[in-house]
Specification:
heterodimer; A: 335 residues; two-stranded antiparallel ribbon; 2% strand; disordered N terminus; B: 107 residues; alpha+beta; Ubiquitin-like (UB roll); 20% strand
Chain lengths: 335, 107
């Protein structure tokens, strides 16, 4: 679902270094492979920096899926109907599934699930900062589906062609499921927009609060994204932050018109010469402040996540103990 | 999988993780099981249940296999050339090697 600024630096430990010394023959073989736009598979030789970049990006992506369950999960018990509740549960379950596909893909690079979770729980690893904002009303749930998932889809479709095989394959599965997320959100907003004035105002308010944050999800402007060029050369990133953001805006403006809401940007207008919408300036100070831990919900999200992990410890241990006991019993019976 | 020489603090900690399993799904009767990903689970039965939840939420399968990842033996990517080379120079194994007169038609 939700990637943003996928090359944000974080303090996560690099996976265990491979014994092989950097070998120029291997390096040039790898470079030639990148030139030919071929895929890299887990046991192929790859430069350390490529491996580290992927571990950071895939694990941030996985963490985003897992933390992304929290703002919406918050509304499961308060969904306005059984139908909406069932839909929301299915969506939140999908997010959990997406996190699992991605953790598995990252593990093929030599990091472990425990290492990644440790980095998340100690605050060393980043996740999409869009989840550090609160979901104040039911309309927020619809807007997250429409705009946040919509932005995520823009980001994720090019990742299906990522040079690293396991990541690309995970993204194919994820993208197939994302379309449901965006459509259910948009449809629930359509229903609210046919309701009372108060319901319409609730939708507009949610759009006003989420619009700029969604634009920031694509990450800093290209000029301020030093890692992007390398990632593009490596086929990890296919389209630049600014180009993805532009595609998202161009796709969303007509959807907002059909829905009957306005987007909170006085500078948003069609540019005939560029054949794109122009938009106003994004508040990057707010973005970085949230990325660096000072958003409205950073502490709450992390604390909820850590509590869930700790409270589940006895289940994980009991399952292992059960497996060991069964194994011992089977061995005894065989003897 | 850590190299035996790995002495990082993570490697020295006792293993608390559930073991890793590879998941293969048959999408419909008549087709083969295909590898679709991996997951952690405490035992085989648990792995099957989790595989159903993680990989078949939308009727993607009618049958699932789970295999401990450790049980898989794989060819070495570095030996790709030597290992697969013998088949490259036996072009007579391909039907296109044989010229057949046009009037014979499709064969």
């Amino acid at each position: 679902m939700y990637t943003q600024a996928l090359d944000l630096p974080d303090g996560q430990a690099a996976p265990a270094a491979r014994a092989a010394p950097s070998d120029s023959a291997l390096q040039s073989h790898f470079d030639a492979k990148m030139e030919r736009d071929e895929k890299v598979e887990p046991r192929d030789w790859m430069p350390d920096h490529y491996r580290k970049t992927l571990v950071r990006q895939i694990s941030q992506h996985a963490h985003s899926e897992i933390v992304g369950m929290l703002p919406e999960g918050n509304w499961i018990s308060r969904a306005p109907s059984l139908k909406r509740k069932a839909i929301l549960i299915a969506k939140v379950q999908d997010e959990g599934g997406h996190g699992l596909y991605l953790y598995s893909a990252a593990e093929t690079l030599g990091t472990s699930r425990d290492q990644m979770l440790h980095a998340l729980h100690t605050g060393k690893a980043k996740y999409s900062s869009i989840f550090n904002y609160p979901t104040l009303t039911w309309a927020d749930v619809g807007v997250i589906g429409w705009l946040v998932d919509g932005a995520a889809i823009m980001n994720q479709i090019p990742l299906c062609r990522c040079s690293y095989g396991p990541y690309a394959r995970a993204m194919v599965r994820i993208c197939k499921e994302e379309s449901f997320h965006q459509r259910q959100g948009y449809e629930s907003l359509l229903v609210m927009m046919q309701g009372t004035d108060a319901q319409k105002a609730m939708v507009q308010d949610a759009v006003n609060r989420w619009w700029w944050k969604c634009l920031a999800m694509f990450g800093p402007p290209d000029a301020d994204s030093p890692n992007s060029a390398q990632s593009q050369r490596w086929g990890i990133k296919r389209i630049s932050n600014d180009d993805l953001r532009q595609s998202f805006i161009d796709a969303t403006v007509p959807q907002a018109q059909v829905l009957g809401v306005t987007l909170p940007d006085p500078d948003l207008k069609w540019n005939e010469a560029r054949q794109h919408y122009d938009h106003g300036a994004i508040d990057w100070d707010e973005f970085w402040s949230t990325v660096n831990g000072n958003g409205p919900c950073n502490k709450e999200r992390l604390a909820t996540r850590v509590a869930a992990w700790e409270e589940g410890a006895w289940v994980r241990e009991a399952a292992l103990a059960h497996a060991r006991k069964q194994q011992a019993r089977a061995l005894k019976e065989a003897a | 999988m850590n190299e035996p020489t790995d002495k990082s603090p993570q490697a020295l900690k006792p293993l608390h993780e559930w073991p890793l399993w590879e998941v293969f799904v048959r999408s419909k009767q008549g087709l083969e099981h295909k590898h679709c990903g991996s997951l952690h689970a405490s035992d085989a039965h648990h792995a099957l249940q989790l595989a159903r939840d993680v990989y078949t939420r939308r009727q993607e399968g009618v049958s699932i296999w789970v295999v401990p990842s450790q049980a898989i033996t794989a060819s070495q990517p570095n030996d790709k050339a030597e290992f697969f080379d013998p088949s490259a120079d036996k072009i007579y194994r391909h039907p296109t090697f044989y010229a057949i007169p046009d009037e014979v038609g499709h064969m």
